[in-house]
C-alpha cells in the first residue's frame, strides 16, 4: 500500500560469496511505483592447509572460490614413502577451508652380509626405525667364523647397512684330528706363485718313535725334558705342492698327547726343514691349552716335538740360608745360580722386578732397601725358558742399624756375604 512502512528483507546467501548489499537504496515507505533491486556479491577466498606429519613442509594454498587448484608437491619424510593425502584434493576451490594430512608407508632397508671376498652371504630386511639385532654366525668350509666386521646403530636408518664376515682358516686332518687355524686372508705361497686358500689341504703324520727323531744336537741342549709326541705337519695345494704361510703366524691345534702331565712346563721343539730348531714355549705366549687341545703358533710347517720338563730347572744356590733372616744395612751379597743350560742360553737376574745382571752369579752391593725380591731366569733366543722361584731377602734399615753401618763404613769394614 502506498505510503506503508517497508521492512528491509533478510540478506540473501550464495555459496562462495559474501552479500554486500543491494544495487539501490530500499526506501522506508512504499513509493508510488514498482521497484526492483539486484543483490551485490563479493567473491570469497578459501585456504587449503597441509599437515605433513613430520615430512617436508607444504605451503598452504589460498584461492578464490571456484578457482582451479594445482595439487602441491608431494612431501618427503625420512624412512617413509608418501602415498597420498587423507582425502581427495578438489579440482576447484570449494566454499570452505580444508586441512589435509599426509599418509606414508614405512620403507624397508637391508642389512647386507658380505663374505670377506665381497660376495653376498645374505640380506636381512628391516623396517625403518626397527631395532637391529646382530646376526648369528656364518659357516664356510675349512674356516672358523670369528665375528662380523662393522658397526651397527641401535635402529635401522634410512639406508642399507652392511657387515663383513671375519674368518680363520681351519684345515683339519681326519686321521689325527689336528687343525691349522689361520687369520683371514693369510697368504700361502710356494716357490712358483700365490695360491688360493680354498685350494689347500692339511696333511699330518704322527711319527711313532718320537725320541728316535730328536736330533743329537738338541739332546745336548735339552734340560731334562720328556718327549711325548712328534708330528709331521704339512700343507699342500691341489697339485700336491708343499706351501707355507707367508708373513703371518698360524695356530696349530693338536690333541694333548697321551700321558703328558699338563701341570709341568710344556714346550715344543720345531725341527725345521733346513736343519735348525726353534723352541716354542708357554712363557712367550705361543703355547697354551684349549678344550683338550695343545695349541701353538708357527710361521712354517715341518716336524714338531711335544715336551714337558719338571719344575723350573733353575734355582738360586743356598738361598735358604737367608730366608727368614735379616741382613745388616749396606751389606753386599753374592748369589749363584744352579742351572744346566746350553751355550745358546743365558742366565739373567732380576731384583725387585728389574733386570740386575746376567751370568752365573749376581752381586748386590750396599743393600739399603728393606726388602729384595730376587729371580733368576734362563733366556734363549729372547724367550724365557725357565725361571726360579722368587726369593725374598730382608735388610735391617732401622736407625741403629744405620748408625752401625756408618761406623763400619768409617773403618771400611762393611759386611760382605758370599754364597758357596
Describe, in plain words, how this protein is organized in 3D.
It is a single chain. With 420 residues, the chain is mostly beta strands. It has 4 domains: 45-106, Sandwich (Immunoglobulin-like); 108-168, Immunoglobulin-like; 173-309; 315-418, Immunoglobulin-like. The chain has 2 helices and 32 strands. It has helices spanning 216-221, 399-410, and strands at 17-22, 39-43, 45-51, 61-64, 80-85, 98-106, 108-114, 120-127, 143-149, 161-172, 179-183, 188-189, 194-195, 201-207, 226-236, 242-245, 250-255, 265-271, 277-281, 287-290, 293-298, 303-309, 315-316, 326-327, 331-338, 345-351, 354-358, 361-367, 371-380, 383-387, 391-395, 416-418. Strands 7, 8, 9, 10, 11, 17, 20 and 21 form an 8-stranded mixed β-sheet that branches. Strand 10 (161-172) and strand 11 (179-183) form a beta hairpin. The longest helix is centred in the C-terminal third of the chain and has 12 residues, at 399-410. The radius of gyration is 47 Å and the shape is elongated. 19% of the residues are buried. Residues 191-195, 210-224 and 414-420 have low confidence and may be disordered.
